[in-house]
């Protein structure tokens, strides 16, 4: 006897709620019972919609990555040049309203580096999304190797600055450094 099918809309709603719960409570504390209680559903409901705990974690990571990239990626119809794209990434990621998501992002990133086999999909995409957008922002006439090198430097620099900002809260100092770096791209 087959179980009832998963309602994709309900799963998406639960997934968004799980991401919010994870942002608030942390990645390492994510487990069925507390999450279900916070979401007002049973643990069985979460199992029905997500399968195993690992599948739930993978779904949460995927949605978090989608949300972060949507917040910092190019907008529909928007094709900024490299400097404008990098500046938009910094502006959106350094916004204090995004800090909770990026704290979770860095926590997940650290855990993924410790257990790459468990977080293979996350690690495959964590750089690729931004890399592709920043390479595309350089235009079709730019050598692919040069485009990747520039994109890599931008990603590493902005992530490092963001990590510094989240760790210290020293917005003036870190933003000054970010603006100096971004000016080199113009």
UniProtKB/TrEMBL annotation:
Keywords: DNA-binding, Transcription, Transcription regulation
GO MF, one annotated term: transcription cis-regulatory region binding
The entry's DNA-binding region: 31-50
UniProt keyword Transport, yes or no: no
Domain (HTH tetR-type): residue spans on this chain: 8-68
PANTHER family per UniProt: HTH-TYPE TRANSCRIPTIONAL REGULATOR BETI, HTH-TYPE TRANSCRIPTIONAL REGULATOR RUTR
Name of the protein in question: HTH tetR-type domain-containing protein
Native organism: Nocardia aurantia
